[in-house]
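Researcher: Here's the sequence for the chain we discussed earlier.
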Amino acid sequence: MIKLSIIIPVYNEEPFLRRCLDSVYASDEVEIIVIDDGSTDDSWKICEEYIEKGFRVFRHLSNWGVSLTRNHGICEAHGKYITFLDSDDEMSEQGIKNMLYYAETTNIPVIQFNHSRYYQRTDVYVTKYKNPRGEYRYEKLPLLWCMVWNKIYLRSFIIENMISFKDRLPFGEDELFNLRCLKVQPSIYCVDELNIIKHFENQNSIVHTLNKDKILGQAEALTRLLREDCSDDFAELVRKVLAEHWASEPYKSNIRGGLS
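Model: Thanks. This is the structure I predict for it:
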């Protein structure tokens, strides 16, 4: 029985891809789903090498974007649980075992793990994000609650509630995905296990290249979410998220400062 599906979207990650794929393993309990999203470098050739290692490898002939690629991975997954790994990050073998242990012993469909962060895909240690163990509700969500690469999800919960990543959202797709999870299940369980995910800061990522259009797209998606039928507590959470974004430096400089 497959217990965990690890979904890895790939787009032009040739210099770092082997390091990522070598950090995970396929077994009777764990399937690795690698989807090359129309890479123009040699990422696809590297992906092909891992078919012999039991990885399930797919290829998009054009670039679908990370949201549709992750949705594709969810559709292909057979595991009881799913998790997402960025193609320039790493996940230890013991980390995978720990993820399964905590998923099987916790009755909440979304579980978050602490992680170590490293500078620009090197072994230069920057810091760690460490939330205390416990259940976090709307009132006080854990640090980095909006990310998907530091969580494990019950797949049936995702499928039955038709939760997916929004296509053509240039920024904030992780946050919107997790908000849709919280709309159904108003809590995240955080495990204070640290050495599961090794996350590398990418200075060329969307977070570091924000502009007016990306920020407005995120705000519009959150505003649409508010218009849906939802509880007062959930609506208050979304309004709080919007307010925090509006007060943030990226919003001030790109929107209120009039820059594009």
